[in-house]
What we know:
Elements: H1 2-14, H2 18-38, E1 43-44, E2 51-52, H3 66-100
Antiparallel strand pairs: 1-2
Helix pairs in contact: 1-2
Amino acid sequence: xxxxxxxxxxxxxxxxxxxxxxxxxxxxxxxxxxxxxxxxxxxxxxxxxxxxxxxxxxxxxxxxxxxxxxxxxxxxxxxxxxxxxxxxxxxxxxxxxxxxxx
Length: 102
């Protein structure tokens, strides 16, 4: 949606229609404000990215922190790479044993 707003505004600006360009940006900002106002809050699990829309938020839950989410995402990537590297090393070792067998 943001990309569409930028594209339409850029086209209007290129056609020397700055009023339309700014109007498009303001229109998309209004749509964004309405979505922010009417969309309910949800809980998001950092580890698996599960979204819980109708969960009891309790007393002032912590807000979603992109830094913490990125830390968990990087940890997941490193874990997958580690598992893949161990699997490749294990397959190479098995292949060496298979070729050395009489």
